[in-house]
Structures are given as C-alpha cells and as structure tokens.
From TrEMBL:
<feature type="region of interest" description="Disordered">
    <location>
        <begin position="156"/>
        <end position="180"/>
    </location>
</feature>
<dbReference type="InterPro" id="IPR010071">
    <property type="entry name" value="AA_adenyl_dom"/>
</dbReference>
<keyword id="KW-0596">Phosphopantetheine</keyword>
<dbReference type="InterPro" id="IPR006162">
    <property type="entry name" value="Ppantetheine_attach_site"/>
</dbReference>
<dbReference type="GO" id="GO:0031177">
    <property type="term" value="F:phosphopantetheine binding"/>
</dbReference>
<dbReference type="InterPro" id="IPR025110">
    <property type="entry name" value="AMP-bd_C"/>
</dbReference>
<dbReference type="Pfam" id="PF13193">
    <property type="entry name" value="AMP-binding_C"/>
</dbReference>
<protein>
    <submittedName>
        <fullName>Amino acid adenylation domain-containing protein</fullName>
    </submittedName>
</protein>
<keyword id="KW-0597">Phosphoprotein</keyword>
<dbReference type="InterPro" id="IPR045851">
    <property type="entry name" value="AMP-bd_C_sf"/>
</dbReference>
<feature type="region of interest" description="Disordered">
    <location>
        <begin position="1"/>
        <end position="24"/>
    </location>
</feature>
<dbReference type="Pfam" id="PF00501">
    <property type="entry name" value="AMP-binding"/>
</dbReference>
<feature type="compositionally biased region" description="Low complexity">
    <location>
        <begin position="893"/>
        <end position="907"/>
    </location>
</feature>
<dbReference type="InterPro" id="IPR020806">
    <property type="entry name" value="PKS_PP-bd"/>
</dbReference>
<feature type="compositionally biased region" description="Basic and acidic residues">
    <location>
        <begin position="508"/>
        <end position="517"/>
    </location>
</feature>
<dbReference type="InterPro" id="IPR042099">
    <property type="entry name" value="ANL_N_sf"/>
</dbReference>
<dbReference type="InterPro" id="IPR000873">
    <property type="entry name" value="AMP-dep_synth/lig_dom"/>
</dbReference>
Length: 980
C-alpha cells in the first residue's frame, strides 16, 4: 500500500452536508409581453447567448443544442386559474443539476392571445442584473449584453442546511419540510431601501433574539468590482453601546470592500451553515423591460437558507418583506414576528440612526404592551380582604360538623379544628407570643401539625415550618436567623436552649384554656406575613422567604372557580410543611371547605400504600411532583384499580408530559383533569397553569400555561428588557403572589425583588430560563444559575459547595447534578468533586450529613488532584471524570444462616429473599452489589427505593416496606430482619 493510500485509509471522513436542491441556486423572471413575442427570432438570440455562458458541469461553455427556448400552448385564457397554475409551475421548475444548460426560457401562449416569457437561470451564470439584460436582449430591447464572465460556475450554496432550527423559531420538529412563505407589505411611507440598511436591521434583530453582541447571518452579496453574486456569512457588530448608524456604517464598509469572510465549504461539516439568510431584490420588476406589460421576479425558486428573509417587490411593483421557512424551522407566528421586527428596526435606523442598539425596540406600541406583562386580570374576592385563619373560621362557622382533617384514625371536624386552634392561640399568647412574632413549627405530618399552624396564625403570629428530618445545624440556623423564641416540636433533640422556648403540641395543649370565645384579638392584617419558608441559598445558608396572608388568599381566589374546588373535594397533604407545595395542599383544601387527608411519612414513601390510601379515602384532588407521580402510575400499570382523583396538580419540578400517556389510558381527560403549574416560593407556590391533555403528552410540550388571574409573567434579557415570543431569557413574575422580602437579607432582596420601571409594580427575578409562546403561554426551560431541582426540592449547588469547603481537609470543591439515564428522573443525583489533603472522601460526605438535609447530601464524593478549568478560569464540567462510587465497608464472612434460613418462594423460582434482592438492587442501581453494601451509599434515593418495591412486586411474593429499607439499608440486614 502506498503512503497516500495509507493516509486515505486512516484519515477521518469529512461529514457530508446535504446538497442544496437545484432550486436554491436558481432565480426566475416572468414578463407579460405587450404585443406578443418579437418577430426577429428570440430562439436564435437565446441560443447564441446561452452558448456564451459557462456550463453547469464545469466545462468552459454550454454545448450546442443543450440550451433552447421552449414554446408552450396553454389551452385557456391568461386570467384563468389553470393558467396561473401553469405559470407557477414553470417559475418553480429548477434547472436539472446534471445538465449543462445554465438557463432555460419558455414562451407561454394563452388562448386569448396573451404571451408570457419565463426565464430561469442559475445565479452563478446570470446574476440579477445579467438576468434582466439577458431577458431584455431576447425581447429585442437591447443590443449589447454584459453577462457574467464565461467561467465555470460556483458550487451550489454550501450554506444550505435543511435541518437547522434556531432556538427562537418554535418550529415543529416533525412538521412538514416543504417551505412556506410569509409576506409583510411595506407601507408607502416606509424609508427607501438598500441592501446595507436591511442587513443592519436583520443583524440587530438577531442580536436580540440570540442574546449575542455579534450575530452572524448569510447574505447574497456582490463581490467588490465584479458582477458575480455569492453567498457569504455577514458578521454584524451589534453591541449594545453602539448606535444603529455606527453599526450600519461599519457593515456597509465591509460589504463594499468585500470583507465578509468566505462562506463555509461543504467540507466544513454539519453545523457550519448559516440558519438565517438575507436576499435583497428590491427593484422594479419591469425596470429595463420597456416592452413589458408587467413583470415578476423570483430571487430564488427554493429558499437558499433555512430562514430566508427577502426584500423584494410583488408583481404590482409594491415593496414586500418576505420570509421563507419550513414549519420545522419557524412557526408561522414567529416568521410574522421576525418580519415585523426587522421592518421596525429598519425604520428606526432610517429615522433615528443615533439610537443605541441597547435602546432599540423592535416592536410597536401594541406589541410592547403585550410583552411588558402577559397577564390575566380577575377580581380576587372573596378571600383577598381577610387573613387565612379568619377565612378558615368562616368555613368552620358555615360547616362546623364537616370533617376537615384526617390522619390515620383521627378525624377533626371544622368546628373541632377551629376550637382547638383558638385554644392553642390563647396558650401562645399566654407564653408571650405577640402579634407578628415568628413561631417555629417542627412537626411531622399529622393532625397536630395542622392545628398548630392554624393556631399560630390565630395568635396573629407568623409560622416558620421546619422539617424534623433536617440536621441539627440547619434547624439551629433557621431558629437563629428567624429570631424564634418559641418552637413547637416533638423532636427531643431540637437545638433550643437559652431564650428559646421549645414545647410539644401536648405541652402547649396543657397550657391552653378549657374554653375560649374565639381567638385572641389581633391587629395582624391581610398584608402581614403568614409564614416564612426557608429555601436553599447560594451564600451557603438557607434564606427565609416572607409571604403575607393576602398572597395565599389571592392564590385561592385565582384558582377556585377554574379548578371547581369545593366542599365535596378530598385533598392529600403529601409534602413536608417546609416545602411550599404544602401551602397549596393545606390552605387550598381548608379555604375551600374540603377534607384534608394527611399522608403519614412512610405511606408517602410507598407507592402501593399511598395508592391504597387514595382509594380508601376517595381522594379527588392530588398534588404531586412528577417524580413521585411516576411511581403512582407504575402501581396502576401493574394492575391496581384506578385512583378516584378528578384533579391532579403538578408542581415543584419540570414535567415531561410523555410520562402521562399510561395515566390517560386509565383516566380519560373527561374524568380527570391534569394541570401542570409553574411556581416559585417567592411568588406563592403557583404562577401559571397548563391543562395537560393527551395532545400535549404526545408532543412533549414544555408549556406551563398562562399566568394565573392576578399574576403576570414576562421574559427578559440580562438588562431587564422584554424579549419577544420564542426568545429565551429570564422569567420575571409580578402581581398578587410576589413575596414581601427575604428575611434579614436586604441586599439579596434588592437584587431579586425589583420595581418595574414601566408600571411601578413589584416583580421577582426568578433566575429561571423560559420563553413566551405567541399566545402568551410560558415555556419553562430550566435554570440560568447554579440552582437545580432534584425530586421537587430546590437546591443551590453553591450551598453544598460552601459546606464542603468548610471541611478542613478540602481546598476546592464543585457539585454537579448528573443523570445516569437522561430520560429517567430517578437516576438523578448530586455528585461532588473535591481537592483535598488525603483521600478519605467518606469522611467528607459524612461531615456534610451533619449540615445538609438528606436530599442535599451528595451521592458521591470524588477526589481530584486539581479542578479542570476553562481558559477563563471557570470550572470546566465537561472535563470532570465520572463520579467515584461510595467507599464500601469490608465485607464480613457471610453467615450460612443468611441464605439457608431465608424464606423460599415458588414465584421466584426458589431463589432466596437475599438473592432476589441482590438481583433487584443490581437492576435498579446499575452497579455491582454485595450483601453488606448500603443502598443509599451506592447511589440509591427515595425514587429508586420505590422502584425496588415495584420490581419486587412484579416478581411476586417478595416485599420490602419502605420503612425497613430506610432503617436497614443493606441486603444482609433486610434478610436478617425478615428471617427474624
């Protein structure tokens, strides 16, 4: 084998770009003749001119006889629909790529004596000016024709990329590929046009759409000093500090000097093609054709770019802005929007060239009003004027004997709930709790929890919920930061002491009066705080979010009628009171007179038990994170009877609606409404609502719907300027749900809670990425910062990193959220990377458990010599190695009894319980498993624990209660417990 052959054998193959269709490089001209075809032989003229042109195959000239003028007899009048179709067909018929002829002409003779001449040419052989000159010569209107030099034509446009989809296009990935055309007629007073000004306008619009200061698009440009046209990328320096006039001047200079860099070649591979292209064809179609009655110029037969913006004129000579695209690339609404915005920026450039790019508004006043705030207004009574506790008291007065709260064997009527809360409120006052004080509530889900929360509100105070499962350090910090002097808890080791009074609900009950006539008097109003919920903080410590009563009441006013919430509904309290989803569950139920079923903790961890509870209690309103709901769907897919719910509300994390298809099979949309709601703690649980149907599930829609009545949303760029539909940016939320502030954090409050300069209203910068759809619905696209959502919990990665860096062994740390399977939320886990003295990563993780809630403790800790950095000195997450598995304890000799005494089961083919567990854990965790390995140290989590239960259920006979798995997290321990 020769050296060259060897090189060819090992050289990587360059990916081939799809060849542009012939029509992408052809343009066409139609001329209506005033007096029929000229009598002096246009066919001979055509043959002579065509022979002087370069051949399409690259030979020096067209071979004789390969180019000819055709004549067609059209058997109908020129104004007949059939004639229009005939003309359209000829105008759109491209020149075959394998033929030498670079030009084709046809004379159409209609039955009424009218004649059209249609000339189709490759642009590389005849540019626009030459095509007009060629046609005029055929008509006998010119005697000298300056044609493009007779050299082999350029290749087909290398920029053609039919699959390209801009992020802002809102195209349908599986829509038709055939191009569509949208037109925007330019008004008579629109400024005069030229190629440079339109290129500037398009570049400025793309800068706003793509969030970059120097966007690049393609354009059909003329080489300086030559008549040939070519396609070349055009970079536009559209930085916000420049004026439109400056941008335009620089662009014109570059175009005139031919300084646009050459376009990518076919060898550049996929991805190097321009998505948006500009074609300037603004000339009177009949110019230079004095014998023509009318003329129609088509700058291309098929659009040369995925998104082709053309400045042209129609057959009547009126100026038109045109966008050609496929539905896969742009939606029709976005295509119309793009044309409007380019037109508006072009007008601004002509009329106010000193306008800074940052100040340019591509939209008119009407569209600006829509972008400033997509809102749905609605009155907010009957809840808004009151406090939460007085509204609940009104329900209790109307229905005192109706059951309000259920927990295991406990049943509390509204009257009992109200009276018990009144008594505890008096007890709190007797202990010195004054109006607007903050009271800590650290209780497991139970009936006592609901009574305690309501009692704090009746005392005029603010409740601060804490999860008993949180580590002592986090509880101590929350207690200190919130300035608590009283905490209600059953946790024996709650970090109290000093001036902090720690009581159990029973102890508070002992201090309560036997009877009381209503709650103690209070001056607390609807605008005063009802609760403070602490969320993960980027500074390394949680931050308290202060929510007034009126926000919760407004939430219920906005949703009650739409969701048909009422006294016939039964709700569940599934989530921790320290998670703001519980606000919706507790007060949503009690404010509308429903029955609240409090789900015991271990029942919430067992999909089978939870599903059984739904059926036994006839639950109608269910609130779930998508991750938890997925396991409920699995239970029904395994054969359980359908749950009786009529309304499912999703929140807490993003929803992939495709997971709902099995649910819709068993719960028709006419019987169970499914609603996906986007929300934030700082905006009172929910902001938007999207009813999810089978159609949304099949398309995988990311829509979270319109803003609730009284709320509003918009999407803004980093400078706070509204962004148009389709363009991603930061979600801003305003209206009735915006929190009061962050507790004790005035600087953070100032950064995140802003005043809208346009309306004077308060708004919250969410840090979430999203985009608006043309109909005002919102798509949620994740986070812009280091915050993540894991199984419904909102987590600041910087908080975990801060805890790791406090470890004396650790000198550098990073935390990332990974998924072993991108399509499976249950495989999501937090992985930490540290640079440390030594290699005892187990002790680093163990220390983190003292300061972080279980859901924030990294599943793995991997030691590195140094952190991989980008050229800008930032963490390069792409270069992080795969996470190390958690260190395992040395395996002790396996007792014979561990396998010999475990029960046998015929359904599992005689395998022991331990052997079945080993198989199931390996299947679920995807890693080697030993009998003494800790399930959670191997990457297990609550969702995977539920999956273990489902896998065992399918095998029949073998079961493991979720409580046992948490208390005995090794296979040997579980087997011993079962054997005992």
């Amino acid at each position: 084998m020769s050296n060259s052959e060897q090189d060819a054998a090992v050289a990587p193959r360059t990916p081939e770009r799809p060849a542009a269709p012939p029509g992408a490089s052809c343009h066409a001209l139609r001329v209506r003749l005033a007096a029929g075809p000229p009598a002096d032989g246009p066919a001979a003229r055509f043959a002579a001119l065509a022979a002087a042109l370069p051949a399409a195959t690259g030979s020096a000239a067209v071979l004789p006889g390969t180019a000819r003028l055709w004549t067609e007899r059209v058997p109908c009048r020129a104004d007949a629909p059939a004639a229009e179709r005939w003309r359209a067909r000829e105008l759109a018929r491209p020149l075959p790529a394998h033929r030498d002829a670079p030009v084709r002409a046809v004379l159409l003779h209609y039955a009424d004596g009218v004649t059209d001449l249609i000339v189709v040419a490759r642009r590389a052989a005849l540019d626009t000016a030459a095509l007009y000159a060629f046609t005029a010569y055929l008509l006998g209107e010119a005697t000298d024709v300056a044609l493009t030099a007779a050299t082999p034509p350029a290749a087909e446009p290398a920029e053609y990329a039919p699959g390209a989809q801009p992020d802002w296009g809102l195209g349908r990935p599986h829509g038709p590929q055939a191009p569509e055309t949208r037109l925007l007629p330019l008004s008579a007073d629109h400024p005069e046009t030229d190629a440079g000004s339109w290129a500037t306008a398009l570049g400025v619009v793309l800068a706003r759409y793509e969030g970059v200061g120097r966007p690049e698009f393609a354009a059909l440009v003329a080489d300086a000093g030559a008549s040939a046209e070519r396609i070349a990328p055009v970079p536009v320096a559209a930085d916000g500090g420049r004026t439109l006039g400056t941008v335009d001047k620089e662009l014109r200079t570059a175009l005139a000097a031919g300084e646009t860099r050459p376009g990518p070649t076919a060898a550049a591979g996929p991805g190097s093609a321009a998505v948006v292209g500009l074609v300037f064809a603004d000339r009177d179609p009949a110019a230079g054709l004095p014998g023509a009655v009318l003329a129609e110029y088509r700058p291309f037969q098929l659009p040369p770019f995925p998104v082709t913006v053309t400045v042209t004129r129609d057959a009547a000579g009126e100026r038109v802005l045109r966008c050609d695209h496929s539905p896969r690339t742009l939606s029709a609404d976005i295509a119309d929007q793009l044309l409007r915005h380019v037109c508006q920026v072009h007008r601004t450039l002509a009329e106010a060239p000193d306008t800074l790019v940052a100040d340019v508004r591509p939209w008119d006043a009407e569209e600006a009003d829509r972008l400033a705030a997509h809102r749905r207004t609605a009155p907010l009574p009957p809840f808004a004027p009151r406090r939460i506790d007085t509204a609940v008291a009104a329900v209790a007065a109307a229905r005192p004997d109706a059951v309000a709260v259920c927990f295991e064997d406990t049943r509390l009527t509204y009257g009992e709930l109200d009276r018990r809360a009144d008594r505890l409120a008096h007890a709190l006052r007797a202990l010195g709790v004054a109006g607007k004080d903050r009271v800590g509530v650290c209780l497991e889900r139970s009936a006592e929890l609901i009574v305690a929360l309501l009692a704090v509100l009746k005392a005029g105070a603010t409740y601060v919920p804490m999860d008993p499962a949180h580590p002592e350090d986090r509880l101590a910090y929350t207690t200190s930061d919130a300035g608590l002097t009283t905490v209600l808890t059953d946790r024996a080791d709650f970090p109290g002491g000093g001036t902090i009074r720690v009581l159990s609900p029973a102890e508070l009950e002992e201090r309560a009066p036997e009877r009381c006539d209503g709650p103690p008097p209070s001056e607390t109003g609807a605008d005063d705080p009802a609760y403070v919920i602490y969320t993960s903080g980027s500074t390394g410590r949680p931050k308290g979010c202060v929510i007034p009563h009126v926000n919760v009441l407004s939430l219920m006013a906005a949703t009650t009628d739409d969701f048909a919430l009422g006294e016939d509904d039964t709700w569940t309290l599934f989530h921790s009171s320290a998670f703001d989803f519980s606000v919706w569950e507790i007060w949503g139920c009690l404010l509308t007179g429903g029955r609240l079923v409090v789900v015991p903790y271990w029942v919430s961890r067992s999909p089978e038990d939870f599903h059984r509870l739904l059926r036994e209690e006839r639950v109608s309103v269910l609130s779930q994170t998508p991750s938890a709901f997925a396991h409920l769907v699995e239970v029904e897919r395994d054969g359980a009877d359908p749950a009786p719910v009529r309304l499912v509300v999703f929140g807490g994390e993003g929803l992939d609606p495709r997971m709902l298809l099995p649910w819709f099979d068993r719960h028709p949309e006419t019987e169970c409404r499914v609603v996906n709601m986007y929300g934030i703690t700082e905006t009172t649980v929910h902001v938007t609502a999207q009813t999810v149907t089978r159609a949304e599930a099949l398309t995988g829609s990311k829509s979270v719907g319109h803003a609730l009545p009284g709320w509003w949303v918009r999407v803004a760029d980093p400078e706070g300027r509204p962004l148009p539909a389709g363009v991603a940016g930061e979600i801003h939320v305003g209206g009735a749900g915006v929190a009061a502030h962050y507790l004790n954090k005035p600087e953070l409050t100032e950064q995140r809670f802003l005043t809208d300069p346009r309306t004077g209203e308060r708004l919250y910068r969410s840090g979430d990425k999203g985009r608006l759809l043309p109909d005002g619905r919102l798509e949620h696209l994740g986070r812009l910062d280091s915050q993540v959502k894991l199984r419904g919990f909102r987590i600041e990665l910087d908080e975990i990193r801060s805890v790791l860096l406090d470890d004396p062994q650790v000198t550098a740390a990073a935390v990332v959220l990974n998924r072993a399977d991108p399509e499976d939320a249950a495989t999501a886990q937090l992985d930490a990377y540290v640079v440390m003295d030594g290699d005892d990563t187990a002790s680093v993780r163990q220390r983190a458990t003292r300061f972080l809630p279980e859901y924030m403790v990294p599943s793995t800790v991997t030691a590195l010599d140094r952190m991989p950095l980008t050229t800008n000195g930032k963490l390069d997450t792409r270069r992080l190695p795969g996470p190390a598995t958690a260190p395992r304890p040395a395996t002790a000799p396996r007792p014979a009894a561990a396998t010999t005494t475990a029960p046998q089961d015929a359904a599992s083919g005689g395998d022991t319980f331990e052997e079945v567990l080993l198989d199931v854990w390996r299947e679920v965790l995807g890693v080697p498993v030993g009998p003494d390995d800790n399930f959670f140290d191997l990457g297990g989590n609550s969702l995977l624990a539920m999956r273990v239960g489902a896998a065992l259920r399918r095998r029949g006979g073998h079961t493991v209660a979720m409580r046992d798995l948490y208390l005995r997290p090794t296979i040997r321990q579980l087997a011993a417990h079962r054997a005992g």
